[in-house]
Design a protein that fits this description.
heterodimer, A: mainly alpha, 2 domains, 0% strand, globular, B: 287 residues, mainly alpha, 75% helix, membrane (chain B), UgpAE/MalFG_permease (chain B), cell membrane (chain B), MetI-like_sf (chain B)
């Protein structure tokens, strides 16, 4: 490598990363202080850490219940989205010459332009009428609403795959199901990773749909719980910040463990899609 | 494969039905209700275009549109410029490349609402307190409580939260530019700015198009940011269209009226998307 390290860029990026880290640092440090320590200095590292804020926040917001609820929504959503959306896209991509499939493709794609506020008021009535105003209803809506973007991503990718393997499999007597499961789905692995990451982030962090559908305290997801308890934290910032840190913690842990895979997954998807 | 296997139909029909039932049907219902005086329950009758005519004279809705556009345009510009700059930095010869890349993506992993509450406390308590300790006048006030400045707080949160994704998109765009092009340019004596202007920028223009369209579309729907920071206030200074439809439709007994608002919003979003694609793609062809 004859090119020298660009120290200007390194320095500026370092400054920029402080902007990312400082709000999280503030939240963490405040969450570990008691009122006296907070009055002395907001941002200094305290001489003793107050984990009692965390214990209080866990009890008050019933943390583990909402953690369980968020997981209950996210895992099935991701699993079903991967299988169903790729299967639908496979059928569309391989039959684009047929009117029905072509229609279906443009039907899903054009739905991307419909803003959610138009659906928002009627869907709440519909879900209540069907007794789906609960966590299962959330899973259903995340799966259904993921279709437009994912059909767009998957169809583009599947169309670029050569058909020769599939044709060979047909001659060997494989049926369409077998071809999808044994040949296509495994080949989709890189794009599946991208879809899984984006779907998981959406389902885990979403606030609007849980706000609309969930009213039962014991069914609330992590972001919704923070909203509901917002007024009860009142001026106890340490308690509030402890609760926020707890709410962010699962995703931060996932990111620390799988950071490389997540980043390469998102980047790969953006080039193909 | 002359005949389409019936399996292909079975693969799509359930998804088709579900999508129609939970996406298209409510959208059609929304359009239907927009011509009625429905309040969310009970009887209703048709009122023709009355909701739409009333919208024209609705100052609150007008303000919501102005705020939403202002927020979406400013945020889209800042996010895309910053993301492109950071991506250029990450793509140059720097130290700790992977660490920086990882740090810049952290915000995108996190719930906007929860991060928004953290920012809310920072704007409301921490910055004013630090500002008055240090004797800096501008910082000692809570910008979220200021009619004219509250929207800037929302922009800051949005930029902080969503740049990570755009940075990665630009970075993957930059990595598609072959190194040979830069080497040829260097031999020709092109400086960094000319390299960017004549090589990098034209080649990543498609990424720019898609990024601008996607981020603008997302920011026009802004909701979580505002729920966490201002709940539309002070007054209605930061009430976005989505928030107005939510507030009016569920709490204000304006179900039909706000669905009419949503139909108008649909056409606005459509117009903006097509307008952007046309302008931006035209620019790409010019190169």
């Amino acid at each position: 490598m004859k090119e020298k390290t660009n120290w200007w860029a390194t320095g500026l990026l370092l400054l920029g990363s402080f902007i990312i880290i400082i709000p999280l640092y503030m939240a963490l440090i405040v969450s570990l202080k008691n009122p006296q320590q907070l009055a002395e200095s907001i941002l200094a590292v305290p001489d003793s850490f107050q984990f009692s804020n965390y214990i209080k926040a866990i009890k008050m917001t019933n943390y583990f219940q909402s953690l369980k609820n968020s997981a209950y929504v996210t895992f099935p959503t991701v699993a079903v989205v991967l299988v169903v959306n790729s299967m639908v896209s496979y059928a569309i991509a391989r039959n684009m010459n047929k009117k029905y499939f072509k229609f279906l493709y443009y039907y899903f794609i054009s739905a991307m332009f419909i803003p959610f506020p138009l659906i928002m008021l009627p869907i709440v009535k519909e879900m209540a009428m069907l007794s789906l105003d609960n966590l299962n209803g959330l899973v259903l809506l995340y799966i259904v609403y993921a279709l437009p973007l994912n059909v767009f991503i998957y169809v583009g990718y599947i169309k670029s795959l050569p058909r020769s393997i599939e044709e060979a499999a047909i001659i060997d007597g494989a049926n369409v199901w077998q071809i999808f499961w044994k040949i296509i789905f495994p080949v989709l692995k890189p794009i599946n990773a991208t879809v899984a990451i984006l779907t998981a982030l959406k389902a885990w962090n979403d606030f609007l749909l849980p706000l609309l559908l969930i009213s039962d305290r014991s069914s609330m997801t992590l972001p919704l719980v923070q909203h509901v308890f917002q007024s009860q934290f009142s001026t106890n910032y340490s308690l509030a910040f402890a609760s926020y840190i707890l709410a962010l913690l699962p995703m931060l842990l996932v990111y620390i463990i799988a950071q490389k895979k997540i980043i390469s997954g998102v980047m790969r998807g953006s080039v193909k899609g | 494969m002359k005949k389409t296997s019936s399996v292909f139909y079975w693969m799509t029909i359930p998804a088709f039905i579900l999508f129609f039932a939970f996406h298209t049907l409510p959208a059609l219902q929304g359009i239907f209700y927009s011509f009625t005086n429905y309040i969310g329950f009970g009887d209703y009758s048709f009122v023709g275009f009355k909701n739409y005519i009333n919208l024209l004279n609705d100052g609150r809705a007008f303000d919501a549109y102005i705020f939403t556009f202002k927020f979406a345009i400013v945020t889209t510009i800042i996010v895309n410029i910053l993301s492109l700059l950071v991506a250029l930095g990450l793509n140059s010869k720097i130290r700790f490349k992977n660490t920086f890349r990882a740090v810049y993506f952290v915000p995108y992993m996190l719930s906007i609402l929860v991060v928004g509450y953290i920012f809310n406390h920072i704007f409301t308590f921490i910055i004013p307190q630090l500002g008055s300790q240090l004797g800096i006048g501008i910082l000692s006030k809570n910008i979220l409580g200021n009619m004219d400045l509250a929207w800037i707080g929302v922009v800051i949160l949005a930029v902080w939260n969503s740049s990570g994704f755009n940075i990665l998109l630009y970075l993957s765009g930059l990595q598609t530019v072959p190194d040979e092009l830069y080497e040829v340019a260097k031999i020709d004596g092109a400086d960094k700015w000319n390299q960017f202007k004549h090589i990098t920028f034209p080649l990543i223009a498609p990424f720019l198009t898609i990024n601008i369209v996607i981020s603008m579309r997302g920011f026009l729907m802004v909701f979580d940011h505002i729920m966490a920071l201002t709940q539309g206030g002070p007054g209605q200074a930061t009430e976005s269209i989505t928030l107005l439809i939510y507030n009016g439709g569920f709490m204000g007994g304006e179900f039909a009226y706000q669905t009419a608002n949503a139909v108008v919003f649909l056409f606005v979003v459509l117009a903006i998307s097509f307008f952007q694609l046309k302008i931006l793609q035209k620019r790409e062809v010019d190169y």
